[in-house]
Amino acid sequence: MKELFVWNQTYELGIQTIDEQHKKWLGIMNKLYNSFVKKEASDKVLSIIKEMEDYTIYHFSSEERFFKQFGFIQESAHLKLHNDFKLELKKLKTEYEKSPLSLTYKLMTFMQTWLRAHILEADKQYVSLLKGKI
Ligand SMILES: [Fe+2]
């Protein structure tokens, strides 16, 4: 499998539950990338976009549960990032349904850039709060 997003140690937060979810999340993105590369049928691609969407919702709600449980001071700003991403993903999915060919590059670039920045910047903010506790 070709990997658009190769996992490396800089993405490791040192919180096992979250790191495993992030790996799985990137795995789905790589699966989507491969589906694009192989020019698979749009219904196949769409089912992976939906898988990505479902996993995103699952992953964000786990993080958000921990924020509540441990009182993360930047909770509202972080929630806004999550909600913006969910909305954008939904929008891109709808666009893809209408016009599968034009959207490939835009969707992949958006997700890759966002995920990388989110893990390396936003998620790093809660490491000191959650590490060793979950
Ligand atoms: Fe997050």
TL;DR of this structure?
The chain is mainly α. The protein has helices spanning about 15-35, 40-70, 75-100, 100-120, 125-130. Helices cover about 75% and strands about 0% of the residues.
Description:
Helix 1 runs antiparallel to helix 2 (42-70), helix 1 runs antiparallel to helix 4 and helix 2 (42-70) runs antiparallel to helix 3. Helix content is 76%, strand content 0%. The longest helix has 29 residues, at 42-70. It has 134 residues and is mainly α. It is globular. The termini are far apart. The chain has a single domain (25-130), classed as Up-down Bundle (Four Helix Bundle (Hemerythrin (Met), subunit A)). It has five helices and no strands. Bound molecules: fe (ii) ion.
What would the keywords be for this entry?
134 residues, mainly alpha, Four Helix Bundle (Hemerythrin (Met), subunit A), 76% helix, binds fe (ii) ion
Largest sheet: none
Q: Any low-confidence stretches, pLDDT <50, length ≥5?
A: none
Whole-number average pLDDT? 92
Secondary structure category? mainly alpha
Provide the list of bound ligands, each named once: fe (ii) ion
CATH class: Mainly Alpha
Gyration radius (Cα, Å) is 15 Å
What CATH calls the topology is: Four Helix Bundle (Hemerythrin (Met), subunit A)
The global form is: globular
- Beta-strand residue fraction: under 5%
The level of helicity is over 70%
Strand segment tally:
0
Order of helices and strands: HHHHH
